[in-house]
Amino acid sequence: MIVIIKPDPDAVTRYAYDFVRAKLTAKPNLVLGLPTGSTPQRLYKALAEGCRKGEVDFSRVHTFNLDEYIGLAPDHPQSYFHFMRVNLFDHVNLPPTNIHFLSGLPDDVETHCEDYERQIRDLGGIDLQILGIGRDGHIGFNEPTSSLCSRTRDKTLTRDTIEDNRRFFENEDEVPRWALTMGVGTILAARDLLVLATGRAKAEAIAAMVEGPLTAMCTASALQMHPRARVVCDEAAAAKLDHDEYYRWMQENDFRMRGVLEAGRSRKPKK
Ligand code: GLP
After folding, report:
1. 158: helix, strand or coil
2. Cβ-proximal residues to 62 (8 Å cutoff; 6+ apart), any chain
3. Residue 180 C-alpha to ligand 1 middle, in angstroms?
4. Which residue minimizes the CA distance to atom 5 of ligand 1?
5. For residue 67, which atom of ligand 1 is closest to its CA?
6. How far, in Å, CA of 145 to CA of 54, rounded?
7. Average pLDDT, whole number, for the chain?
8. How far, in Å, from the CA of 52 to the mean position of ligand 1?
9. Which residues form the pocket of ligand 1, taking CB atoms under 6 Å from any ligand atom?
10. Is 244 a catalytic residue?
11. CB proximity list for 258: less than 8 A, separation 6 or greater
C-alpha cells in the first residue's frame, strides 16, 4: 500500500484532485467508484471547479457509488443519491444515464444487487475506486465481520455507525439501520484504489488498515491485498502510524522524480 501523508485536508484534496484528473485525462471514459461522507466533499468541490474551468471532463465517465441506505428514496435529503447530486452530480457534465446507483427502495434486494454487479462488469470493471473510511475501519458499509470476499448486498449497520450518522437526522429513530453496499470483494476488483482520510478521529482506523493484521474486524485492512491501493491522509489521520518515517522517506525518494533511470541510461560505460 502506498501511504502519502500531507500536512492538512487542503493538501489531501489537491493530491486527490490531481490523481483523479490524471486518470480522467488518460482514460476519458473512466469508470469511477465514488464514496459519500464528509471526507470526499472537498474533492467533489474541486472536481466541480475543475469541470467549470475545463480541466476535467465527465462527459464519457460512468460512476458507481459504493452504497445507499435501505428505506430512503433518492430524493430524501439524507439519501446518498441526494448527497451526490448536491455535492457533485449537479455541478459536472456527467450524463445522468452514466450515473449508477444502488436503490434504497429496491423491488428485490438480491436481484438488484446482482444487477449492480452486472452493470459494473458490463462496463469493464471499475478503473478507480475512491474510498473514505469509517472510524471502525469500514469501507462502504462493510462493517466489522463482513466477508473479505463479499459482493454487493445488504448490511446491518453497527450502533457506532448509526451514532456517527445521527448528526444528519432529526432524531435517532430516523437514522437508517440497514444499507446496500458494494462488498469488499467488489471494491478489491477495482484497478486502482484511493483512500482519503482526514482528522484525528480516523487515526486508529488508518493505522489498522495500513499496519494492522488482515482481518474482517477492520474491512479496510483487506486493501493490503490490493496491488494498487494508495491512501492519502493528513497529519492528524496519520498520527497512529508506526512506520510513518518510512512513508515520508519513500515520498521524498521516489526514483521516478529523481531521474534515476534517465541518469543510469545516459551514464557512459567505463572503458
Ligand atoms: C459512511 C460511508 C463510508 C464513509 C464513512 C466515513 O459509513 N458509508 O463510505 O467512508 O461514512 O464518513 P466520513 O467521511 O463522513 O467520516
Report:
1. coil
2. 29, 30, 31, 32, 98, 99, 100, 123
3. 14
4. 134
5. 8
6. 43
7. 96
8. 27
9. 35-39, 66-67, 132-134, 140-141, 161
10. no
11. none
Closest CA to 214 of 202, 226, 203: 226
| pLDDT, tens only, 11-43 | 999 999 999 999 999 999 999 999 999 999 999
250, three cell numbers: 519513500
Q: Residue 154 in contact with residue 176, Cβ under 8 Å? A: no
Whose alpha carbon is nearest atom 9 of ligand 1? 140
| pLDDT beyond 80 at 257 | no
Q: Which residue segments constitute the domains of the chain, with CATH numbers given?
A: 2-266 (3.40.50.1360)
Cβ contacts of 243-247, under 8 Å, gap ≥ 24: 243/211, 244/3, 244/5, 247/3, 247/4, 247/5
Model confidence band, residue 147 (pLDDT cutoffs 50, 70, 90): very high
- Cα gap 67→80, rounded to integer Å: 7
153-180: per-residue pLDDT in tens?
Answer: 999 999 999 998 888 888 888 999 999 9
pTM value surpassing 0.90: yes
